[in-house]
Design goal:
Elements: E1 14-20, E2 24-30, E3 36-43, H1 50-68, E4 75-82, E5 85-87, E6 92-95, H2 107-115, E7 119-123, H3 124-135, E8 144-149, E9 153-159, E10 162-163, H4 200-212, H5 220-225, H6 232-240, H7 244-268, E11 272-276, H8 287-297, H9 300-305, E12 307-310, H10 317-333
Parallel strand pairs: 1-4, 4-7, 8-11, 11-12
Antiparallel strand pairs: 1-2, 2-3, 5-6, 8-9, 9-10
């Protein structure tokens, strides 16, 4: 952490965890074992004004503490996960797609002043992988990559037991590595990023292309008449029933995911992967094929070592990771 000022600790100890997304923000109070004692969820739209964000988040922490029957002096640290670009070294939100006014927002310092507590702030994918390592499917794994697929694709790395942020603080942007130079334009502005195929948006885009090429689908007419009604979940249900276009859309996701896993195997010698996010709910539609593609595209020895795990914590992964990192921050500042 940037600020290592000592914060006195007396009596029972708890931490607060925050998970901030574009639609909702959540706060939870956690004990040392990760057990959630109190939790609240509110709309995150009140955070759009950057000058008010820290105050609103501090209010949410106090509300969660009240739900848990914990007083503010009993809290020793706050961990915060943000869906956006975070310089974890400086505690700055560099950019946030959900809140366009959040540019180089010094949220760590602001929240620390509002609550008089040490604060650690990281990207939500980093937090989710940290949570899976603490309480989920990556327990006791020292080197692991996390890939979290929802609307987009987020990534994170733990190398030799430590989250790897890189010099810029923003390592793990696997979704914006190049996959297809002739592909679709990504929300980031580039062409053919992995996220354009291996994500919920990617599944829907692939399905649209496949139907346009003439592959039959029982969803085709509905898709043409009301495209917003067709989601990755809708396409997953159709694929499980054998719909040809839907199956192919998920195969394309699996191929892209397998290629990404292979790049990480070959480039970083990572041999353990956690796959999470809402797309992981469709695990049977892509996991085996992605594993096969990863092994075919990698050298034999590192590929033999590689194992893919499904995330266990679901929507709670980022909160769990934020809590675990808050405990580490408390340990640092009490020395």
């Amino acid at each position: 952490m940037k600020n290592r000022r000592k914060f006195p600790v007396k009596g029972p100890r708890f931490v607060a965890a925050l998970d901030v997304g574009g639609t909702n923000m959540r706060a939870a109070i956690s004990g040392r074992d990760g057990r959630v004692l109190g939790r609240v969820e509110r709309s995150s739209r009140v955070l759009e004004n950057p000058s008010r964000a820290a105050g609103e988040l501090a209010r949410l922490v106090r509300e969660a503490a009240g739900e848990a029957g914990v007083t503010l002096p009993e809290l020793v640290a706050v961990g915060m996960a943000v869906a956006g670009g975070v310089d974890a070294h400086k505690g700055i939100v560099t950019q946030c797609p959900q809140f366009s006014a959040w540019r180089n927002l010094k949220l760590q310092d602001q929240l620390m002043k509002a609550l008089k507590l040490p604060v650690v702030i990281i990207n939500d994918a980093d937090a989710a992988l940290a949570g899976e390592q603490w309480l989920g499917s990556a327990r006791e794994i020292e080197t692991v990559a996390g890939i979290f697929m929802g609307t987009g694709l987020g990534g994170a790395l733990i190398l030799d037991g430590r989250l790897w942020h890189g010099p810029s603080g923003m390592a793990g942007e696997f979704g914006h590595l190049l996959y297809d130079p002739q592909g679709r334009r990504c929300n980031c502005g580039q062409i053919g990023c992995y996220e354009t195929v291996a994500s919920g948006t990617g599944v829907k885009n692939s399905f649209a292309d496949i139907v346009a090429q003439g592959t039959r689908s029982r969803l085709a007419r509905r898709f043409r008449e009301a495209p917003r009604e067709i989601t990755a979940q809708t396409i997953a249900r159709a694929a499980m029933q054998g719909d040809p276009a839907a199956v192919e859309a998920w195969d394309r996701l699996a191929d892209a995911l397998g290629a990404l896993l292979s790049a990480l195997v070959m480039g970083l010698s990572v041999d353990r992967f956690v796959i999470g996010g809402k797309i992981a709910l469709a695990w049977p539609l892509f996991a085996r094929r992605a594993d096969k593609v990863m092994r075919e595209r990698s050298f034999r020895y590192p590929a033999r070592r590689a194992r893919i795990f499904r995330a266990r914590l679901g929507d709670n992964a980022a909160l769990a990771g934020a809590a675990g990192l808050a405990w580490k921050a408390a340990a640092q500042t009490s020395k």
